[in-house]
Model the fold of this input.
Amino acid sequence: MLNPHYVVGFVDGEGCFSITLNRNSGRLPEVRLIFEIELREDDLPILEKIQEVLDCGKIYRLEYARYERWSPHVKLKVSNFEDISKKMIPFFTKYPLQAKKALQFEKFCLVAEMIGRKEHLTEKGVKRIRKIKA
Done:
């Protein structure tokens, strides 16, 4: 098992905490939180160890055949809200990020709290989420 502080450093360099607003058939956009790390395929073993430490997420193999000289990549992705709120956020709260990802994570947590209170289902909430994201 990897040291949690190693995982934090790795995520500070390679991770991404995303807040997405996707248009759908409803009046309001769908608000989603996504955590990802994308690496070259030969780094799969470290991604699997990070997944083990975080105890969540799925690993996907990515191939972009349209690009010449593009080597296959692997991506660890966590988008399940329960995993984000009960595993990811507590982990990175206990082991804080130290670099620029700390601000990304702070915004991620604010939106997670709003989703937990169902504020993302109101126009006022979506407007606030857009402001946080910007």
